[in-house]
Amino acid sequence: MKDSITMKIALLGGTGDIGTGLAIRWARNHEVIVGSRSEEKAKADAAEYALKAASSYLEEVKGKVIGMKNEDATKYAEVIVICIPALYVYETLTKIKDNFDGNKLVISPVVPIRKINKSFVYDPSIVAKGYSSATEAIADILKAKNIVSALHTIPAKKLADPYARLSYDVPFCASNDYSKGIFLELAKDLSQHLNCLYVGEISLSNLVESITATILNISINSRKWDLSIKFVE
């Protein structure tokens, strides 16, 4: 993907924390579509994100942010990012799957975890039973040929802060070289400081998704928040 190319990126369920950060950062170079069950909410939040991006990045903003219902955003965009909580992924995707073209790129930062007592436990059955990861379930529901499992370990609060330096490692899985290449370019547009590390095919997505449960448990027990990861030699 060349720098001059603007992509249409839909953030399904993009009215939450992670959607805020992705929208304002990608608005610098791309057309971002905030998706929601409610078109009214999608448009209201999109206007808020666009204003935040413009006030933060000024002349750097060459893209735009608009709002649509999830179904329309899916049909319109070239890249689909699943920003939906794990519990609602199956229900939402089964409603919009007829609007999805299997050749589009899907990015899944979905983390299927549940809290047991005071600890977080990784559990992909929250999305759908019989899968070892949320990403594999999503790929099957949408019949997606191009899918990436990534962005799980970036703190939403930091992502939503346009001035935060996202100096993190980002382990990711991808279904093919095309998916890998597009994702790496889009990651650069979130922050030049992200270091994306390829783990392997999406059959290994459980390894990537489950890191978040580890981070959350460390946060609870150490009382340190907004943690992420870096790999060192």
What does this protein structure show overall?
- This protein has helices at 17-26, 39-57, 70-76, 86-96, 134-142, 156-159, 177-190, 205-209, 211-222; strands at 8-12, 31-36, 64-69, 79-82, 105-108, 113-116, 119-122, 146-149, 169-174, 195-200.
- It starts with 7 loop residues before the first strand and ends in an 11-residue tail after the last helix.
- Strand 6 and strand 7 form a beta hairpin.
- Helix 1 (17-26) crosses helix 2 (39-57) and helix 4 runs parallel beside helix 5.
- It has nine helices and ten strands.
- The longest helix is centred in the N-terminal third of the chain and has 19 residues, at 39-57.
- The strands form two sheets. The protein has an eight-stranded mixed sheet, sandwiched between helices. It has a two-stranded antiparallel sheet with strand order 6-7.
What would the keywords be for this entry?
eight-stranded mixed β-sheet; alpha/beta; Rossmann fold; 233 residues; single chain; two-stranded antiparallel ribbon
Task: Summarize the structure in short.
With 233 residues, the chain is α/β, with parallel strands linked by helices.
Which geometry do the CA atoms define?
globular
Name the CATH class: Alpha Beta
Largest sheet: 8 strands, mixed
Compute the separation of the termini in Å.
31 Å
What fraction of residues sit in β-strands? Answer: 15-25%
State the CATH superfamily name: NAD(P)-binding Rossmann-like Domain
CATH architecture field: 3-Layer(aba) Sandwich
Q: What Rg do the Cα atoms give?
A: 16 Å
What is the fold-level CATH name, i.e. the topology?
A: Rossmann fold
Number of domains: 1
Structural class: alpha/beta
Cross-sheet strand order for the largest sheet: 3-2-1-4-5-8-9-10
**In DSSP terms, counting alpha (H) and pi (I) runs of 4 or more, how many helices?**
9
The ordered string of helix (H) and strand (E) elements is EHEHEHEHEEEHEHEHEHH
Overall mean pLDDT stands at 95
Query: Which consecutive residue ranges, at least 5 long each, have pLDDT under 50?
Result: none
Total number of beta strands: 10
- Which range best describes the helical content: under 10%, 10-25%, 25-40%, 40-55%, 55-70% or over 70%? 25-40%
